[in-house]
């Protein structure tokens, strides 16, 4: 447990989840209509909102990823990361339950990966990493003044 | 723990992202409309096979067909195209169908060389919960394929009805 408060491990975790979000965002920005089709395939959102999310989500991912890498607003961005990843995972879980055989759209349409248990486990891993950043960022920051004493 | 979040900053992060997203979408040549266009398909209602010779991009030229009509057309020798991935395809598919996976669809895909633009094609995927066959039908119509049918109920209904199937296939 001691390692969890190591600031370099925390920094690596921030960098990693930031990198994942930037990568996922850029791939989607490159092919907005493909991402819009991916969202449509989940059959969860009404038609009216599909393109809104297809336009907005990738940029939220990229901005959030950049801020995480630059160690800015970490609490807020890791909260966004956890929220979005949880929403994606629930969507994938519903798709798997309904037996949909669709591309998950996670990293755009170029790196196609179908929805399935593997994807859910990957996402759960990332959510845990996001939670670690969310919780320990504060703990470590608080402990810095004490270390200096 | 949540009360340490600066909600105002979080809102700004989201708003800045939205601003960037919509501005980029407006300026980008790949930009998409704010509301997704709804594609209406036609419905196959006769035994007659109509071919769209006008070359129009009218999606009602893609006809939806049910199991009964799909089987009738199958018996007339119309080609079936399976748009599921190669693993699902090799686990079982309509006898004689060609695999054109939606996930790797491109106008240069090898399987397209097996299909003529002037012949009738019936596209299917796993079940009516799956929109992949419609997606591929739209892409094929754009490429100039003139007589397209979508068998919505798909592989599962075909298999359960006991119609001709085969297993295996190229990887």
Oligomer: heterodimer
Low-confidence stretches of chain A: none
Which structural category do the helix and sheet elements of chain B fall into?
alpha/beta
CATH class of chain B: Alpha Beta
CATH fold node name of chain B? Oxidized Rhodanese, domain 1
**How many structural domains in the coordinates of chain B?**
1
Compute the separation of the termini of chain A in Å. Answer: 23 Å
Report the sheet with the most strands of chain A, covering strand number, pairing sense and barrel closure.
Answer: none
Q: Specify Rg of chain B, calculated over alpha carbons.
A: 21 Å
SS elements, strand count of chain B: 8
Spatially, the strands of the biggest sheet of chain B line up as 1-2-7-6-3-5
By CATH, the architecture of chain B is named 3-Layer(aba) Sandwich
Give the rounded overall mean pLDDT of chain B.
Answer: 86
CATH homologous superfamily grouping of chain B? Rhodanese-like domain
Topology of helices and strands:
The complex is a heterodimer of chains A (149) and B (171).
Chain A: H1 7-30, H2 32-41, H3 47-69, H4 74-97, H5 117-148
Helix pairs in contact in A: 1-3, 1-5, 2-3, 3-4, 4-5
Chain B: H1 7-27, E1 42-43, E2 62-65, H2 67-75, E3 79-82, H3 86-90, E4 93-94, E5 98-99, E6 120-124, H4 132-142, E7 147-151, H5 154-160, E8 165-166
């Amino acid at each position: 447990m001691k390692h969890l408060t190591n600031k370099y491990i925390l920094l690596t975790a921030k960098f990693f989840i930031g990198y994942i979000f930037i990568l996922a965002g850029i791939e989607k920005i490159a092919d907005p209509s493909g991402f819009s089709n991916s969202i449509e395939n989940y059959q969860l959102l009404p038609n009216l909102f599909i393109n809104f999310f297809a336009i907005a989500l990738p940029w939220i991912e990229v901005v959030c990823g950049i801020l995480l890498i630059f160690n800015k607003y970490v609490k807020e961005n890791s909260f966004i990361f956890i929220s979005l990843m949880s929403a994606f995972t629930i969507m994938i879980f519903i798709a798997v339950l309904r037996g949909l055989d669709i591309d998950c759209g996670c990293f755009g349409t170029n790196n196609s990966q179908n929805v399935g248990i593997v994807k859910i486990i990957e996402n759960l891993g990332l959510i845990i990493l996001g939670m670690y950043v969310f919780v320990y960022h504060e703990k470590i920051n608080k402990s810095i003044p004490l270390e200096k004493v | 723990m949540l009360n340490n979040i600066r909600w105002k900053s979080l809102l700004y992060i989201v708003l800045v992202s939205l601003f960037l997203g919509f501005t980029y979408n407006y300026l980008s040549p790949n930009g998409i409309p704010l509301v997704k266009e709804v594609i209406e398909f036609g419905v196959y209602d006769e035994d007659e096979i109509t071919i769209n010779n006008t070359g129009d991009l009218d999606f009602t030229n893609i006809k939806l067909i049910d199991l009964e009509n799909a089987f009738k057309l199958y018996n007339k020798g119309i080609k079936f195209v399976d748009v599921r991935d190669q693993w699902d395809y090799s686990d079982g598919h309509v006898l004689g169908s060609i695999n054109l996976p939606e996930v790797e669809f491109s106008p240069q895909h090898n399987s397209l060389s097996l299909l003529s633009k002037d012949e009738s094609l019936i596209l299917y995927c796993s079940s009516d919960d799956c929109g992949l066959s419609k997606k591929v039908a739209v892409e094929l119509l754009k490429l100039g394929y003139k007589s397209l049918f979508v068998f919505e109920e798909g592989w599962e209904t075909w298999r359960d009805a006991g119609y001709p199937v085969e297993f295996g296939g190229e990887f």
